[in-house]
Amino acid sequence: MARAPLLQLNGISLTFGGEPVFDGLDLVIQPGDRVALVGRNGSGKSTLMKVMAGLVEPDRGDVIVPPGQSVGYMEQDPDLSGFATLGDWASSALAQGELYRVERAGEGLKFDPEKPVSAASGGERRRAALARLMAEAPGLMLLDEPTNHLDIEAIAWLERELSATRTGFVVISHDRAFLRALTRATLWIDRGIVRRQEKGFEAFETWRDTVWAEEDLARHKLDRKIREEARWAVEGISARRTRNQGRLRALGALRAERAAQIRRQGTADMALATGPKSGRKVIEARGLTKRFADETIVQDFSMTVLRGDRVAVVGPNGVGKTTLLNLLLGRVQPDAGTVTQGTNLEVACFDQARAALNPDQTLWDALTNAPGMRVSGRSDQVMVRGTPRHVVGYLKDFLFDERQARAPVRSLSGGEKARLLLARLMAQSCNLLVLDEPTNDLDVETLDLLQELLDDFDGTVLLVSHDRDFLDRVATATVAMEGDGRATVYAGGWSDYQSQRTDYRVEKPDKTAPKKDKLKKETSPRKGLSFTEKHRLEALPAEMERLEAEIAKLEELLADPTLFTREPVKFAKASEALVERQQKLDAAEDEWLLLEEKAEG
Fold first, then answer.
1. What predicted TM-score, i.e. pTM, was given to this entire model?
2. For 503-544, how does the pLDDT look when each residue is reduced to its tens digit (9 = 90+)?
3. Fewer C-beta within 10 Å: the chain N or C terminus?
4. 1-70+139-149+168-199 has CATH 3.40.50.300 classification
5. How is 362-423 classified by DSSP, letter by letter?
């Protein structure tokens, strides 16, 4: 016997007074469903979830929750007025014997139920909202960006809980690893249309690209038919006095169909401008120690950051990741040890808390009045990587429309605020880019583009993130902060760090073998090396692999026999980049051999 659905939407239409967000939407969520809700920033994901939760009333249609079923929604900005502590609010709907559920969720999500509401940050409030939802255990859980403000340990706890639950859930998240691990179906919002596929997020990108390719083919065929019919109309009129009115009406219908097709929203037109080349050594830290009261942030920490490195800093919330960044940047002074910065550094920062945005400013003012932004001679233009650009035109590059230019920042979604900060960041030239939680609220396509930009960026990147997939795609080295002042440098991204936690070595070199084939593992410690040299030796294999990949990409580009005549400037830049990376690879291999020989005594 078929079970009743958890939730059913029939004929839902919603406009918000402008273009329809949804029109005639039908949707069913069944018991046991584990659904990823995906779509571009601003496509209506959170709005659809609020309709499902009964928090937004549609213009037309019905939201049906069968008797005996319940729907719970994780509020992004919960109203905690009237409650003294986060725990009081999170447990307010529970019976006395069920209060342990909030305590258990609080432990996993790392929030303190005794925290006064008046002193709670936005992140702590959101963790309390998630704990409340997990404790109440409704029949259907609606999770809107549940991993934001969680560290990797808390994300892993939530992943385990959701994997074990029999409760159905719909989840919005930018964390691909989280979605891949949990979901079995995907809802995709695209230009007001909601499509469903009975496969998890793992299959989403292939599905999306197939749908778009089919659309492009259908659009091409329609355009060709319109051209053929238009040619007939012109030739037919000149050849005879009478016209086939039915065929002309059909041509008009074709044109109307083509005009009604909604163009896909493009990706943000982002680009990074590398400033003057920095020195080879960007940052050198020696014996750093920093304490706040009785808490040790780092103890005797040393590392060297070289030009082109992508260094990720990971660890639990509150362990001091941002403090370590500020120590390396010279914004916070260590209690002991030294930090030496290289020559010719130009630094640009992406702020974790979005604190750099004034909610009362318009988007226009947020660009023209931002620190580091240069305004051209005209009040309606800003300098973007040395070129004057109209404010509205530059905002359009980041998928904002003309109406939003004069709207207040507070009207933006989390993803839109992130895009606005990226617009400010990418107008500046820099050779050291600092990204503190850049992935929060960004959609999949913008994350892909950001990764490509970082791949092509000639400068150095310092990165803090809890997004495991993004770390694996970007980082060449990872600093793991594990509390009590322990901070250890590992080669590669998150998965590499996990595999190296117990063992890592580089085997004794065989100078007759290819250098890249000499990497092996063991459990014995390296001898004869200083602390910094040991970590440099561990980081070099990943650096060499990255350089080899970049060389292969450049060689593939230069293999095009028409490139020189078609795009001579691009050919010249690619040739210069190839020579530079080959020189870097040679130097890295020589350094690896010297350090390995020193380690072996």
1. 0.68
2. 444 333 343 344 444 433 343 344 567 767 777 888 888 888
3. N
4. yes
5. BHHHHHHTSTT-EE-SSTTEEEETTEEEEHHHHHHHTT--GGGGGSBGGGS-HHHHHHHHHH
